[in-house]
From TrEMBL:
Forms part of a macromolecular complex that catalyzes the attachment of specific amino acids to cognate tRNAs during protein synthesis. GO terms for biological process: arginyl-tRNA aminoacylation; post-embryonic development; reproductive structure development. It comes from Lupinus luteus (European yellow lupine). The lineage of its organism: Eukaryota, Viridiplantae, Streptophyta, Embryophyta, Tracheophyta. Residues 488-604 form the DALR anticodon binding domain. Transmembrane segments: none annotated. CDD domains: Anticodon_Ia_Arg (cd07956), ArgRS_core (cd00671). Its EC number is 6.1.1.19. It catalyses: tRNA(Arg) + L-arginine + ATP = L-arginyl-tRNA(Arg) + AMP + diphosphate. This is arginine--tRNA ligase.
Amino acid sequence: TATKTQFISTMSVGEDNVSSVKRQLTQLFEISLRETVPGESDVVPLVDSCSEKSGVKHGDYQCNNAMVLWAKIKGKQTGFRGPPAVGQAIMKNLPPSEIIESCSVAGPGFVNVVLSKNWIAQSLHRMLIDGIDTWAPRLPLKRAVVDFSSPNIAKEMHVGHLRSTIIGDTLARMLEFSHVEVLRRNHVGDWGTQFGMLIEFLFEKFPNPEEVNESAIGDLQAFYKASKVRFDSDSEFKQRAQQAVVRLQGGEIRYRKAWKQICEISRTEFHRVYERLGVQLEEKGESFYNPFIPSVLEELGNKGLIEESEGARVIFVDGVKIPLIVVKSDGGYNYASTDLTALWYRLNEEKAEWIIYVTDVGQQQHFDMVFKAAKRAGWLLADDSLYPKATHVGFGLVLGEDGKRFRTRNTEVVRLVDLLDEAKSRSKTAVLERDAAKDWPEEEVDKTSEAVGYGAVKYADLKNNRLSNYTFNFDQMLNDKGNTAVYLLYAHARICSIIRKSGKDIEQVKKTGKIVLDHDGERALGLHLVQFSEVVEQACTNLLPSTLCEYLYDLSDIFTKKFYSNCQVIGSPEETSRLLLCEATAIVMRKCFYLLGIEPVYKI
Ligand code: ARG
């Protein structure tokens, strides 16, 4: 399977991610497996953490190789009598390690590992001294492209684009944290036949091009609609619009200029949203790839991929009946020709090894066909677990209360700026209701309201499995109880206030103090903390931000229910150690917030 091979390729990179408990145990089991069945070479260790939620727990981690191995060696003269015996042997052959406190074999040969709490404590302490970045995973690639947000000029930037923006930004942040250089690409829809109509309409409205600016045009979406009405109702206008497309593509100065003006106005609007959300992107829109299309299609033609079909030029790919059209019957290029070219550019010019596309699931087939065509061309490998590779990160719809596509009030589409305004003003009301905020300066109230409001919108999106639809509900996402950003941000602020209230200089405590994990609550918290690295690695590998959200929520839960409610911090004999656990929790929470694009809150 993909994860299996990925694991091997990750390990062969040489720079092992030593901060990952799972990876370290995997290496130990690899040695043991080789020892246990010397003849079998390609046995991949199946090691995973044991979830609290799965009921009976015999250890912190488990190795599940015994059954698989048994199936392989059954007929041979190995002396084993069954999977449990194989499990026993795997356990016995484990090299000694400071990570492991004890091992046992359970059921049909599961090898359970209990981690050494001294080792957990030491890892935590080392992280406190050296910084959380030392816990960053190492992925087996150098450079990735994340293609996200990618709205269309003059058309609406709708909640679908908001999802793409939020999910794409998180994926980029997680990969960047994991030592991958990420090219954040905004594949803006800035080319296409709609521009003929827009340009002609612009000429009509503003005979003097000097007068064109954002405030004169006002709402670009309304402008688009009005021009569409004109286009549909007047055949003479329609003809001129069609001419305009040709003239624009031919590079006529006046038309290029008008096109640029329209793009610029859209861009300003997009940027307002990005700025609010703290998202960085580099625009390389569809038009950027235009000059490269002919030579890329020529290459594909030379490789024998392109066929003629009903006047169009197309590529057939495995498992899909309809072909991918790369040149329309009128000779024009389309979305697919641009995407094939962009993929070529990203692989060959930008030397990216992983190209990730974040769009709604509706575009899945498009990307499936583009990737398959690229495989036929030999640009990508057939095996998706190897780099270079391309992945479509699909997501579901945003629904309103009525279960239909999300809309606000009477507007047909939701303006993202309005949505963010509302998130902020609602969270401001809630912030002002809190005692702590009574004597805050306006600026602080504002900053907190933004952190909470935008954080809530982002988290409500990211916590779901991205493939499922989710219902947009302000009341729910701004609730301070339950699995929300508000709850998590407040939990973090409370931990910070425990540290403040102790009156201790935490930097000093880090240097002189020692972490002890004698209480079950302390140990459970410590264990969860040292698993941060492998969770980020998993979230990157599967491109699932929800994995990180789950981890963060569990962390807050374990801190409160297992640790804080049972282990007095201030004034207890264990105060020093427990303050360090508070600090480690706050640091890991903040890194999770950072990776999710959420601003932390320190006081509340
Ligand atoms: N502009 C497209 C849309 O709004 C999304 C582009 C996604 N990226 C890509 N390389 N096709 O649907």
